[in-house]
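Case study.
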Amino acid sequence: MQTALLHMGYAGIGDVRVGKYLEVDLSAPDVESARKTIDEACHRLLSNPVIEDYHFEIVE
Amino acid sequence: MVALTAAIPGDDSKMNFAVLQFPGSNCDQDCVHVLRNVLGHSAWLQWHKERSLRGADAVIIPGGFSYGDYLRTGAIARFSPVMQAVVEFAGNGGLVLGICNGFQILCEAGLLPGALIRNRSLQFRCEHVYLKTVAPDSPFTRKIPEGRLLRIPVAHGEGCYFADAATIRRLFANRQVLWQYCDAKGRVSDDASPNGSVRNIAGICNATRNVAGLMPHPERASEGILGCEDGRLVFESMIEALTERKLAVK
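After joint prediction, the assembly is written out as follows.
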């Protein structure tokens, strides 16, 4: 992809990486419990810690 | 269609294989066919919703695209009810072999270390490869003659084995790397790998040597009519190990 972008004439392209973006609708009593639930879900299923890192934002 | 059965009690000469079946498994029938019709043992399809392994002596997790490879390969299948039974079975020393998607599921389930990521070429590779058996002292490799290369097909898009450097060192030190991709002369080189796996790793086992996974498909190379019978050696190794276990119990 980096090579393709450079071939297309986009100068200055450095590292290119592909990731995943997920949106989760969640009902929770407060932000802290929502954070706890999502963190656990990320760790157990949504990411594989062997090959992936994750971070998340809670938007109300 | 293969009829469902369960373990045959009392016949120590016949081993009983549960071949797991997830939505999207597509090598399940091939595995049952080889175990039952080619090797003459008992094998049945085990739907992923079942929580019991019905007295199986060994479990095969076949290839395919379980749950459509959603999220990551094998990521959803590991939470199937049958996988809870497999974790318990493996914990008690039961033999479990994961082939292709089955290998991916075992890694996601934490029964094998590491992960399988997209092939370095970014292409789905479907071709015959050569395998060098690195560790003949396992229930999955014991019947493979020393120095004999196996010629077995691969068919995958995500077969690039990855683990951190410490894990790779540990795998080699403990003789947990069972097979490496090599060329026809047995040379382990970058060119011989279909997917860019770390150190050409094609298959590994766990520390207790009762759970193994590999990307190549031994069930597609177990009959002369298919051009190659090398894959039989993997199943025959398991059968020999199981027979020895049954005799030891007596």
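Observations recorded in class. The mean pLDDT of chain A is 93. The interface with chain B takes residues 45-46, 48, 50-51 of chain A (CB under 8 Å). We will return to this complex in the next lecture.
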